[in-house]
Design brief:
globular, 22 helices, about 0% strand, mainly alpha, about 550 residues, two-stranded antiparallel sheet, two-stranded antiparallel ribbon
Length: about 550
């Protein structure tokens, strides 16, 4: 991780006698001894890893581990830094499908790559905060909404404690708590690493371009029916723990990409479309604004292609809500996007008539759309409306605190409930009305805080105001998706949302407008004085 060299106080530097410069022999001896120590340490670590890998792993997996350790050592300066750790987290989240692979290590549980990365980063962050006095705790802004959400979920466990124990679900409830701690740590880890604007913009660009790669491969997947993300074990030391899945719609294959489900893929790409549009205006590279708009315009087209390859009506609803929010918050931008979208819609309808008829045309056949949501009642994969009545009847029996966090198991041999494709309904069943209220605070409060901040503290800073509004639009899209898929069960999309939420926390606490407000003694949501007339200054409208 990053090392901060201690600095002497100026007064001490002035009063201390000047030290004699080291001789060449002393410097060489120090350098050689330090290099020898590092060489010995690296050799010992490599020997330990080699012995463990040879004794416990199959030959192919052992070779992969040794290759990984060698590459890790060569790139140690880039990897063992906070930015490097964040980059690894982004890469693992975006490219390694959750619940598909585990590390080939004999353990009583499946050790998935994202869990390893999160545990290491969480431990490193905690250690740095405790041991490195020069590294401060960075304010998170959204701690209280997350706290309310966590408390609303946790209270359901003691209220339903007897029933959970009688049904042998006590361990499942504890596992759910641990899992939630690990998932929410993505927000806190990311926020602690976001120390500068450069890192923030780098994270946004990394998410967009990783999403673009995923979308491009998803488009190829729909055509070839070959998912490269399900073949990572061919060249990485990963063990397959789940079979490939297939889904069909609109006369073709629905792409999964690196997600757990086509719906999750499409929602994740929808969120990144908004970020890509922002970067087209204010991204760091390319420096030339025309080239930047062209480059990110291409990324937006590819991301939309990835959304189409998933053939998900949920994505159309999410995009529609995000577009309406854009029209409301930035009318001219919304009109511009609408003008650019019309020709694209016409071309897409001509090139992919079945896909567009399924995604858009189905909304105009209201009777057929409603009927499709009542299919397979009482079975796995039932329509959303088919699940609604029995789920509400079950919720009526436990209205306030549900049946307890972790009581609903929707996969595996211990399955006792169906996937509802409705996170709000699932939260109601598990944690009751209290849990739903906590969920509403968790999702809506940060969006409202960023919205108010954009029109007050960042009123005369369009660059930061637009980023805040972009994140508000992302939050609106994700909040809409909660009603159409089990959002917290599809980790990739949730992790991307948490990373973007961490960017929002940086905006409210450490961005230039936030720091200027703090320096001037203003509140976070107070409007600063209007700047003097300047060509660069413009008010957010």
């Amino acid at each position: 991780m990053e090392q901060v060299a201690p600095r002497l106080h100026d007064s001490a530097a002035e009063t201390a006698p000047a030290a004699e410069p080291p001789t060449a022999d002393a410097a060489g001896a120090g350098s050689s001894s330090g290099g020898a120590a590092r060489m010995v340490t690296a050799s010992v670590i490599l020997a330990i890893v080699s012995i463990v890998a040879i004794l416990l792993l199959p030959p192919i997996a052992a070779g992969g581990v040794l290759l990984f350790v060698a590459v890790l050592y060569l790139a140690r300066r880039a990897v063992f830094s906070w930015v490097g750790g964040l980059g690894i987290l982004v890469a693992v989240v975006m490219f390694i499908p959750v619940r598909r692979y585990a590390l080939p290590i004999p353990l009583p549980f499946e050790l998935e790559p994202y869990r390893v990365v999160l545990v290491l980063l969480l431990g490193a962050t905690a250690a740095a905060l405790l041991l490195d006095r020069s590294r401060p705790w960075r304010p998170v802004a959204f701690g209280w909404p997350i706290g309310i959400f966590a408390a609303a979920m946790l209270v359901s466990i003691p209220v339903n404690g007897t029933a959970l124990v009688e049904q042998s679900l006590g361990g499942t409830a504890v596992g759910a708590v641990v899992n939630w701690v690990l998932m929410l740590s993505v927000f806190y880890i990311t926020r602690q690493i976001l120390s500068t604007e450069r890192i923030v913009m780098g994270l946004l660009a990394a998410l967009v371009w990783c999403g673009t790669i995923v979308a491009l491969l998803a488009i190829a997947e729909r055509v070839t029916r070959v998912n490269l993300f399900w073949r990572l074990n061919s060249f990485l030391p990963l063990e397959v723990i789940a079979d490939e899945s297939e889904a069909y719609r609109a006369g073709g294959f629905r792409s999964f990409g690196s997600s757990q489900h086509p719906i999750a893929l499409s929602v994740m790409l929808c969120l990144l479309i908004a970020v890509a549009i922002y970067l087209a205006a204010y991204g760091g590279r390319p420096h030339n604004p025309i080239n930047r708009r062209i480059l990110y315009g291409i990324a937006v087209v590819i991301l939309i292609g990835g959304v189409l390859s998933a053939v998900s009506r949920t994505a159309i609803v999410v995009l529609a809500v995000m577009f309406l929010l854009t029209l409301l918050l930035r009318p001219w931008l919304g009109i511009t996007l609408f003008a650019l979208g019309l020709p694209a819609l016409a071309i897409g309808t001509a090139v992919l008539p079945k896909v567009f008829d399924t995604l858009i045309g189905s909304f105009f056949d209201f009777d057929a759309l409603i009927a499709s949501q009542y299919t397979s009642a009482g079975f796995r994969g039932a329509g959303r409306l088919a699940d609604l009545e029995p789920s509400l009847a079950q919720a009526a029996a436990h209205p306030f605190f549900g049946t307890g966090l972790g009581s609903r198991i929707v996969t595996g041999d211990d399955q006792n409930a169906f996937i509802l494709d409705n996170q709000v309904l699932g939260t109601l069943l598990e944690t009751g009305a209290v849990g739903v209220a906590g969920l509403a605070v968790f999702i809506l409060a940060p969006a409202i805080m960023m919205l108010v901040w954009a029109y007050t503290s960042a009123r005369y800073e369009p660059r930061y105001a637009l980023l805040a509004l972009t994140l508000v639009i992302v939050s609106g899209g994700y909040a809409t998706a909660l009603f159409f898929f089990d959002a917290f069960g599809f980790y990739q999309t949730f992790f991307v949302y948490l990373m973007l939420l961490a960017v929002g926390a940086w905006l409210l606490t450490a961005s230039p407008p936030a720091l200027a407000a703090e320096a001037a003694g203003r509140g976070r949501y107070e409007t600063p004085p209007a700047p003097l007339a300047s060509p660069a200054a413009s008010e957010v409208s």
